[in-house]
């Protein structure tokens, strides 16, 4: 198991109340494969540094999890296929 940090930026047209449940549903993949989700922090709507897909705002979500590399890459893949997700960034924590 490795520690990962996942940042997701959702389209601002998405209802903020649906973001956390949809992330929890996606992160069940981690717990099913023996990993743990340490924290899911929904930052809410923030202004972007530059426009992405002609949007100047996005809904930020930060996730800390311990899982295998295969599961982390699969979650990232599923998020990139989701049309309401504008950007993802998956980082492996060294500590």
From TrEMBL:
Gene3D superfamilies with a match to the protein in the record: 3.30.70.60
A Gene Ontology biological process term: translation
GO MF assignments: small ribosomal subunit rRNA binding; structural constituent of ribosome
Classification via SUPFAM superfamilies: Ribosomal protein S6
Pfam families hit by this protein: Ribosomal_S6
Alphabetical UniProt keywords: Ribonucleoprotein, Ribosomal protein, RNA-binding, rRNA-binding
Family (UniProt): Belongs to the bacterial ribosomal protein bS6 family.
Function in brief: Binds together with bS18 to 16S ribosomal RNA.
PANTHER family given in the database record: MITOCHONDRIAL 28S RIBOSOMAL PROTEIN S6, SMALL RIBOSOMAL SUBUNIT PROTEIN BS6M
Name of the protein this chain belongs to: Small ribosomal subunit protein bS6
Source organism: Gleimia coleocanis DSM 15436
Taxonomic lineage of the native organism: Bacteria, Bacillati, Actinomycetota, Actinomycetes, Actinomycetales
